[in-house]
Amino acid sequence: MLLDIQNLTKRFGGLTAVSNVSFGVERGEIVGIFGPNGSGKTTTLSLIAGILKPTSGAIVWKDRDISTLTPFEVAQQGLVKTFQNPQLFPELTVAQHMRIACHLHVKRALGIGRLRTLFSGMPAELDRTLEHKIGQMLELCRLSSQRNDEAGALSYGGEKMLGVAMGMVCDPELLLLDEPASGLGHDEITNLDAVLRDLKSHGVTLCIIDHKVGFLGRLADRSIALHHGAVIATGKTEDVLANEAVVAAYLGKKHA
Amino acid sequence: MTQLVIGQMLNGVIVGSLYGIIALGVTLTFGLTGIVNFALGAFMMFGAYATWYLYDVVGLPYPAAVLGAVIFVSIVGYISDRALFQFTRGNLVNGLLVSIGMISVFEALVLAAFTTTPKDLTYVLPGALHVAGIVLPKIKVAVCVVFLAVIFGTYLALTRTWLGRAAFAYAQNPEAAALMGVRTGRLQTIVVVYSTALAGLGGGLYASMYSIEPTIGSAYILKAVEAAILAGVGSVIGALGGGIILGVSENLGSVFFPSAFRDAYGLVFLIAILLVRPGGLFGDRP
Question: On the CB side of A190, how many CA atoms lie within 13 Å of its CA?
Fold first, then answer.
């Protein structure tokens, strides 16, 4: 098991946002986490990424409990999270954003020697490696043609795609996607669908939270449904979506 | 009259570049750690005293004394970051209280060690340049050139290199940076220490032009904060621009109005600019 969440609980004062949640993610699969607003999806993801610390429970990544690590340490372990609203710099180009996201590559390649790049620029060989990698990721995320556009000129869908590409360029083993489809139009979702399938075929494991049931239903191999912070159903996505408790949580008891 | 005005403008540029170098520290620290480090004036004073001590008492050559002072102040900066500032990240009020408290501690230490008697460095670089009837002391010109070089160097490093651009980006969004594997805590420490080193450099060069007392820092930190706001917080080149605008408006104001109110002329300018551009002159630009 790549990631194993065991009895994860997070309380904020009297509110239990995540209650005794357990699930696992296997290498190479797409796992969807869905639930209505306030069901604890984002909190769960923040706990995994190390932004929040769990009240109790364990987050086991490759046989090691990472629940006490800081966010940057979690990211260095190969577990990268994207943002619901991508945090971009309007005046920098798409390619420059990708370069910035290459921090871990440069760090691994140069160590403390990266301070020298302030005076002498990036070593030519590393520069080529990064350019190649960035080109690949932009291709994968359908952003190649906008490579030299400023981020401020991108559509909202383009911004979200850039967020995914920036996460991907960190070479994650598991990419956590926080509501990638929210705020996107129909065509953009179709595009996103294709991109995420491509990522999967490149061997990336994905964990996606969203409340767009249709989108997750087409994409996820397995799903976990949350309601009031607890797991109410888990298993193959179509089974979870048909589950009575899930339907009731989404539409109210009357329609179930 | 023209000579007087031009001479005062040049003086303003020189004083302004000193405001600018401290303002750069203010703006970088605020951008990365979310606090206004009012103790930077005290760090500047430390730098001035360290330079005086190394140059006049120990007998080092002046450039070596300044370098030694910058290193000394950086070490003090590092210790104060580890001991105090790291606990005030993103908390403006706590950071303000801690930094104001540090001013008292630093001034008291220097007072105890060196008394209130003003210290003067023996002439470092005597002589003056005469350009079209305007007299400019060489040392002031040299100091101004060093400040401009450091500020432009910082600007180029932050905007033209990968590491600088990345650091600038991480600074604006520490959470996103951490999720890309950036050790943001260390980046913040580096910036706090760099800003104290800039203040130390400012102090070291200040000591070559004016006599020094334990309280010199307070006036300069206020000017530096003013310059940073005038420029738009977060702007490197703006810190320099803001400092120079402030220096020139003070010096020019003193030509036409009573010089006792020189501090007010800069403030009038600040208010006028903020009325037109509430985000500062350079707002949100590096």
Answer: 3
Can you state the angle between helices B216-231 and B262-276, rounded to 10 degrees? 20
Which helix H or strand E contains A31, and what residues bound it? strand A30-34
Look up the ipTM and state it: 0.70
- Is B166 in Cβ contact with A99 (below 8 Å)? yes
Question: Residue B166: which of A100, A121, A170 has the nearest Cβ?
Answer: A100
CA–CA dist A186, B135 (Å, integer): 71
3-class SS of residue A223: strand
Helix and strand numbers (H, E) in chain A are 11, 10
User: What DSSP designation does A102 have?
Assistant: T
Q: Which residues of B touch A106 (CB under 8 A)?
A: 162-163
pLDDT tens digits for range A124-157:
888 888 889 898 888 888 888 888 888 888 888 8
Whether chain A has a CB inside 8 Å of the CB on B3: the answer is: no
| Cα–Cα dist B130/B138, whole Å | 10
Contact between chains at A75 and B179 (C-beta distance less than 8 A): yes
Q: CB of B162 within 8 Å of any CB in chain A?
A: yes
In whole angstroms, what separates CA A148 from the centre of its chain? 25
- The identity of residue A148, as a single letter, is N
What are φ and ψ of residue A111, in 5° steps?
A: 60, -140
Put simply, the answer to whether B169 touches A100 (Cβ < 8 Å) is: yes
List chain B residues with CB under 8 Å of A80: 179-181
Domain ranges, ordered by start, for chain A = 3-255
Question: Where are any strands of DSSP class E within chain B?
Answer: 128-131, 134-137
Q: pLDDT tens, B126-173? A: 778 887 777 788 888 888 899 999 998 988 888 888 778 777 777 777
CA distance B200 to B114: 18
| Chain B contact probe: residue of A118, A126, A137, A170 with most B CBs at under 10 A | A118
Q: Assign domain B2-276 to a CATH class.
A: mainly alpha
| Superfamily designation of domain A3-255 | P-loop containing nucleotide triphosphate hydrolases (3.40.50.300)
CA distance A74 to chain B (A): 7
The residue assigned the tokens 């994409």 is: A219
Number of helical H runs and strand E runs in chain B: 11, 2
CB contact under 8 A, A99 and B157: no
Residue B283 structure tokens: 């707002």
Does the reported pTM lie above 0.80? Answer: no
Spatial distance between the Cα atoms of A158 and A148, rounded to a whole number of angstroms: 13
Q: Residues of B numbered 170-189 whose beta carbons fall under 8 angstroms of chain A's beta carbons: which are they?
A: 170, 172-173, 175-185
CB contacts, 8 Å: A100 with chain B: 162, 165-166, 169-170, 180
In 3D space, the residue among B58, B56, B26 whose CA is nearest the CA of residue B208 turns out to be B56
Phi/psi of residue A104, each to 5°? -65, -35
